[in-house]
UniProtKB/TrEMBL annotation:
Protein name in UniProt: FadR family transcriptional regulator
Classification of source organism: Bacteria, Bacillati, Actinomycetota, Actinomycetes, Kitasatosporales
Recorded coiled-coil stretches: none
InterPro entries registered for this protein in UniProt: GntR_C (IPR011711), TF_FadR/GntR_C (IPR008920), Tscrpt_reg_HTH_GntR (IPR000524), WH-like_DNA-bd_sf (IPR036388), WH_DNA-bd_sf (IPR036390)
Keywords per UniProt: DNA-binding, Transcription, Transcription regulation
Length: 235
């Protein structure tokens, strides 16, 4: 196993410093000169480490103002997922299908927990999004990806799990990136609306099994469009 470089070691120590000082997004970090003195290293190594951490949203460098703890988002994770899937898809492998299956496992496994108690206001939001889908289907002949994405993110709001929301959104972002380059086709919008309507009604009835079944049916439709593409590209 290769030994970490000086810059990689500084990256680790900066992360430890953030944790030790209880810093959060937007909080200021020591200056370059202070980091050099604190770690006993040179300016080049510190800058290399900070740039690497900036690339993954751990730090934010604001020219003229200093260095701060970054937003700690999963955008770099989503970008990596998208690129990996795109490369595999270009090679005739099921990159997009793999992304979808991971998302399916997450959503199907979690939707039952949502039925434990969905506030009326959350149900109203979900029904409003289904209504928006129906309007889009009638007007444009397709459901907007943004509306579909908003529905699935709103679906798990009652779980109050910020990390879950970020992970699901990262998978959405990755799938959207790959789909933009390799159009996988679109489901009949009437079917899409009906499937989302069934998910909401299962939640309203507090029926976890029905909700999981409805979610699986929804993903069956997505899979049916991706698997034939896999066969075509694999030839």
């Amino acid at each position: 196993m290769a030994r970490p470089t000086m810059a990689q070691d500084i990256e680790r120590r900066i992360k430890e410093l953030i944790l030790e000082r209880g810093l959060g997004p937007g909080d200021p970090l020591p200056t370059e000169a202070e980091l050099m003195e604190l770690f006993g290293v040179g300016r080049v190594s510190v800058r290399e480490a900070l740039k690497a951490l900036q690339a993954v949203d751990v730090v934010e460098i604001r020219r003229g103002f200093g260095t701060f703890v970054g937003p700690l988002s999963l955008s770099a994770f989503a970008e990596g997922l998208a690129f990996r899937a795109a490369v595999r898809q270009c090679q005739g492998e099921p990159g997009l299908l793999e992304l979808m299956r991971v998302r399916e496992a997450l959503e199907t496994g979690l939707v039952g927990a949502v039925t434990a108690g969905v506030p009326d206001e959350d149900l109203a939001v979900l029904r409003g999004l289904v209504a928006a889908m129906e309007t889009e289907a009638g007007r444009d002949g397709r459901v907007a990806r943004a509306t579909d994405r908003a529905f699935h993110l709103a679906l798990y709001a009652t779980l109050d799990n910020h990390l879950l929301s970020e992970v699901l959104d990262a998978f959405w972002a990755a799938m959207d990136r790959v789909r933009a380059d390799m159009d996988d086709g679109h489901q009949d919008p009437a079917v899409t609306c009906a499937q989302h309507h069934e998910i909401v009604e299962a939640l309203a009835a507090a029926d976890g099994e029905r909700a999981a079944r409805a979610m699986r049916t929804h993903f069956d439709g997505i899979r049916s469009r991706l698997e034939p593409r896999r066969a075509r590209t694999g030839r």
